[in-house]
Design brief:
By secondary structure, the protein is mainly beta. It has helices spanning about 10-20, 30-35, and strands spanning about 50, 55, 60-75, 75-90, 105-120, 120-125, 125-130, 135-145, 150-160, 165-170, 180-185. It is built from 2 helices and 11 strands; from the N terminus they run H-H-E-E-E-E-E-E-E-E-E-E-E.
């Protein structure tokens, strides 16, 4: 089994964020980008979105899901209060297509608290944004990444899938923040509890 170390922090966050729409990467994933490599529009897994309310503004290419939003794809689940999907192409809600029309999701904005889970991995934050064209994911506001007993905390997580770079920051020193914090259990493989 793969062991989690400070160097493997990138893989942990990437896998957690990828869980929003794509199944988790294989156990051999070693970086954020490896974990998020499925976070493209080429996944064959269906995406299921549930919410209390859905507003579609097709002329603007916007769909807004409100109230206990749950997004599932494979074993991955995201929960949030509000999800805004920007898309191009006709046909109503994202993923639905008119005859011959192709839709493409441009961006996703989750807000009101975001929890992403897949297997023993969890990522939480206040907001998450997914820029599909730039292949950039940003999670902000009290970000916590966990896998088994391993925990990383920061204020902002940025993952660039194209360059395979990731960064966890905590820039708000005025409120006592300003430091990224990690707890790594030596020798603990993913899936092992304390």
């Amino acid at each position: 089994m793969r062991r989690v170390s400070a160097g493997g922090l990138a893989a942990l966050g990437a896998i957690l964020l990828a869980a929003v729409f794509f199944p988790p990467a294989s156990a051999r994933a070693q970086t954020f980008a490896d974990g998020l490599s499925g976070f493209t529009q080429n996944s064959d897994e269906p995406i299921e979105i549930e919410s209390d309310e859905l507003e579609v503004r097709d002329t603007e290419g916007v769909a807004v899901f409100r109230g206990s939003v749950v997004v599932r794809q494979g074993a991955a689940v995201m929960r949030t209060a509000r999800l805004v999907v920007e898309y191009e192409g006709g046909g109503g809600t994202p993923g639905a297509t008119a005859a011959g029309a192709e839709q493409r999701i441009r961006s996703l904005e989750a807000s009101g608290g975001v929890v992403i889970t897949s297997d023993d991995q969890t990522a939480t934050g206040e907001t998450a944004s997914f820029d599909m064209a730039r292949e950039v994911i940003v999670m902000s506001g009290d970000v916590v990444l966990t896998q088994g007993g391993n925990v990383v905390r920061g204020d902002r997580l940025t993952v660039n899938l194209a360059t395979r770079e990731s960064r966890i920051e905590s820039p708000d020193r005025a409120t006592g923040g300003g430091r990224v914090r990690g707890l790594f259990i030596p020798g603990q493989a993913p899936g092992q509890a304390n």
